[in-house]
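Re: Re: token formats

Sure, here are both.
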Amino acid sequence: MSVIRVLLVDDHDFLRISVSSLLARAGGIEVVGECADGARVLELALTRRPHVVLMDIQLPGRSGIDVARELIARHPMARVLMLTGSSDQHWLLDSRAVGAAGFLVKSGDPAVLVAAVRAVASGGSVWPDHRPTLSLS
């Protein structure tokens, strides 16, 4: 793929704007859609055809876990990278259980986010290992 297409899903405008800017500056990544809750994710995923859906776990109305579960069930090739403000172990386990391709904490290094999007787009996964760093595989 020449350009990685990303759909951003987060209820905080500041985060969406910041991540969109970060990804645009990285080169080779285009944000093809954004939404603030889980209501439009399936529609946008179908119409915008992102390679990666970068989704917050805690969304208004529906959890990102529930949205990811439905998205992956309907579109098994969907590559979902969960994003959260909490490193709570149950969110990590739930993300794995629904078939997400990775899990990142929002307080992490911005360079890791860019590398994670690239890894997930190319078929890899991003999961925290037993240390507080991320292993990209």
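Second one below.
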Amino acid sequence: MSESPNPQWYCVHTKPKTEHLAAAGLAAFGEVETFCPRIRFQRSTPRGKVWFTEALFPSYFFARFDLASRYRAVKHANHVIGVVGFGGTPVPIPEQTLEELRAEMQGMEVREVSHGVNVGDTVEVAEGPMRGLKGIVESMTSGENRVKILLEFLGRQSLVEVPSSKLLSSRSPRDSFTDK
């Protein structure tokens, strides 16, 4: 007599930057539910501000499956390194933990986060003639539309007012989930 299926959530370790590919591949198997929370944010590049999408937990995602019948398929799926566990035994994750994470992600697999600037943040000017210069946010003016930043330029410090939309904070976009 075989055991009845008992699907539980597990954390799956993947090769770098392939979390969404591994999750999609496993979901296509059937009998495996996946949740790969990702964030979309802007970052400064030599071309200016560019949108990026990354896993909320780099190299990890969550899969709900029956350990007895699906473990080998999950462990040997494309892009998967293994299932997280202790002493070689996969450890299930409580359903409540995944429900809280889904709530934090506002029910989306890809959540756009803006990690705006705060007084005291180190920022980089992303657009305009001062692009690439770094400074410290001194104060917020007229709401969050404009900020005054202290820039060191040509050997002296200057207080400059800049639209906040032209700045990128040095804080990680993942900080949006811990700033409460």
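The mean pLDDT is 85. DSSP finds three helices and 14 strands in the chain.
- S.
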